[in-house]
Amino acid sequence: MTSSTPALRVMRILSTLVLLVTGGIHLFLVFDGVGGVLGILFVLNAVSALVLAVGVTFLRGRLLQAATVLALLFLIATLGSLLLALTVGLFGIREVWTFTLVPQTIVVESIGIVILAVTAALVLRVPTMTRR
């Protein structure tokens, strides 16, 4: 899809914002004292979120489709990792609800998944006019 509708533009902006907020939360946690392997993973998360946000904002055509789907999968994996850490543990790390920004992260990433799912649907939808 090469044309950009107003709805798609708005959803791309919202997708970019939610990716930047998610990356910002993880970077804040690193500066707040999370270290070791988890700190490295959080820095990688922040960098990935930034790269995906730039992709969702500036790419067009098939690359935009790929970036949007990857961003959606990224947020699903990020939220899934946090939920696993809260329940059964992940890589030997067990998280608690009272840790810094855990409830806010759950809310932001859940909303982000919905926003990116809508954006992906708009980007991937098949044009209604067929070529002859």
From TrEMBL:
<protein>
    <submittedName>
        <fullName>Uncharacterized protein</fullName>
    </submittedName>
</protein>
<feature type="transmembrane region" description="Helical">
    <location>
        <begin position="12"/>
        <end position="31"/>
    </location>
</feature>
<feature type="transmembrane region" description="Helical">
    <location>
        <begin position="37"/>
        <end position="59"/>
    </location>
</feature>
<keyword id="KW-0812">Transmembrane</keyword>
<feature type="transmembrane region" description="Helical">
    <location>
        <begin position="71"/>
        <end position="93"/>
    </location>
</feature>
<keyword id="KW-0472">Membrane</keyword>
<keyword id="KW-1133">Transmembrane helix</keyword>
<feature type="transmembrane region" description="Helical">
    <location>
        <begin position="105"/>
        <end position="124"/>
    </location>
</feature>
